[in-house]
Amino acid sequence: MKLFLGIDGGATKTLAAIIDEKLNVLGVGKAGPSNYHIVGLEKAIENIKNSIIAASDRAKINPVFDSACIALAAINSKVDYARLLKRIVALNFFVKLKLVHDGEAALNSIMLKNKGIIVILGTGSLVAAYDNNGNYIRAGNWGHIIGDEGSAYKIAIRALNYIMKIYDGRLGFSPIVDEIIRFLKIKDLSEISTIIYTDLKNEEIAKLAPTFIQFASKDNFLFKIIKEEAEEIVNAIKAVYSKVNYKNIYLTGGLTRSKKTKLYIDLIKEGVKRSLPECKVKVAEVHPVIGSIVIALKEENVEISHKEYVRMTKELNILLRQIH
Amino acid sequence: MKLFLGIDGGATKTLAAIIDEKLNVLGVGKAGPSNYHIVGLEKAIENIKNSIIAASDRAKINPVFDSACIALAAINSKVDYARLLKRIVALNFFVKLKLVHDGEAALNSIMLKNKGIIVILGTGSLVAAYDNNGNYIRAGNWGHIIGDEGSAYKIAIRALNYIMKIYDGRLGFSPIVDEIIRFLKIKDLSEISTIIYTDLKNEEIAKLAPTFIQFASKDNFLFKIIKEEAEEIVNAIKAVYSKVNYKNIYLTGGLTRSKKTKLYIDLIKEGVKRSLPECKVKVAEVHPVIGSIVIALKEENVEISHKEYVRMTKELNILLRQIH
Predict the structure, then answer these.
(1) Quick one: fold of B143-283?
(2) What ipTM was reported for this prediction?
(3) How close A109 gets to chain B, by Cα (Å)?
(4) The pLDDT value given to residue A287
(5) High-pLDDT (> 70) share of chain A, %
(6) CA within 13 Å, CB half, B162
(7) Does domain B3-103+287-323 have CATH number 3.30.420.40?
(8) How far is B159 from chain A (nearest CA, A)?
(9) Segments making up each domain of chain A, as ranges
(10) Which chain A residues touch B138 with a CB distance below 8 Å?
């Protein structure tokens, strides 16, 4: 029996899933974050290892895989790739190993057959596609410091920056300040700085974004921020579209799963309609760890029918929900 | 003999200076960073303690001070103040202790007699003044995540974000890319992400800013970034000016000390001239640790003449250069 491993590792957690050659899901495992730009190389490797061991224990197998695909956030350069590959290979769990940017897992997870553009709107942001030659094309996703325009994190920090400007008199008062004070459960706006720098991690800051988007319908300045961030996403879509010309655009990620973010999703849809009227935008529920498994199967030339894919996805979802 | 202590603690280092009641400089000491939003509370307190002990050893005194002023970056809220004060008091070094935002040290260091506005353009940025009632007024300085507009750090990350947009096709090519590749000593632009997230600390990223400002004279998009950041500083000056009406504006910090940043300083000066033609902008060399000492002396009602201030400053500069 051949064993396959898929991993999706990011800023919040690392998920591992194991299947056999009949596409039966044998086990899943969860560990801490493995974005090495945020947690460091040692911690990232440790969490990748822990996720594999957790999944293997549940699958009741030894962790030796015929083919594995590890999809990680923050693989942005050859240096990143080489650093991580060396340490992951040394774990000695794999006969065949593929290490990819997490956008590739997202792309494969929706069975695009290389003919669509995926837009991830989560803590970070990314627009990606495979071109007709199978090359991975991306725009954005350069991280929370020099990138991730249009992401939940970027929206949240821009909204908080706006509030600090009101606080110290650089911008005029808005009634939205009172709503934000209630939402953040603070007494004084100066506490925002303390919360951001000492209390919240990036992914917790990002979780504030849906509410700020909701407030944007009542505040011109917040609305301007949300519109600008939507334009950033549209520009990234245009950059990828110019290289692949695919008309199907799939949105996914946390910002697509909240009722509060409708305004933002609508602004992105309107922007695409204006700039690329030939394109269709759909919101797609994707599970990146499934994309990693799809890549691992491809590497061993295992064919997947749509029916098998749907069954596998359902099984995986049930197990993933158990460890969530 | 009465002993006075002044401390200036920030994201890069903590400096301590000890003087006696005759304003003789007895010793200075240096330790690691004490911006607790960046290094954490434990490390910040440890470095404050170490800077005091280093200065006391050089001064050959026991660390017991009649009056001390500790000026720290990142004291932005009552919560910050309370957290730090409790731990600093527990060090048991002080009869009288004043804990202030580092902008207050900068303000006192140039002997403004409460009649000027100070603009710090360093790794972070700040505009501050005392109003006629002695209240501390500030705009900006909400840190690298939700503030510090117009700072070296903010200019550097915006420039790098611009380059990543060229790299992935969101913006068109500019010849400045080749100059930046040479300046950063990289082979491929994707390495920028790796450098930023795993190699450089905030203050090291900030050190890239003067060169990016220099490049801005040859690149329209970089020029636009520099102009927008200068406008942010001008807006902060306007916010403080509206509360104090002081016509003297003093610029200080790393960005005022480089030949490469002339364009940026000129843009700020032009912006002030346009918005507040009644104001005068000067570049002032300030030493925040001297400002802390001035505050410590005020607390004990020690008068300082301008002559004594100049002598003390000279003595301190000599000693500070020795430990730099």
Answers:
(1) Nucleotidyltransferase; domain 5 (3.30.420)
(2) 0.89
(3) 23
(4) 82
(5) 99
(6) 23
(7) yes
(8) 9
(9) 3-110+287-323, 143-283
(10) 168
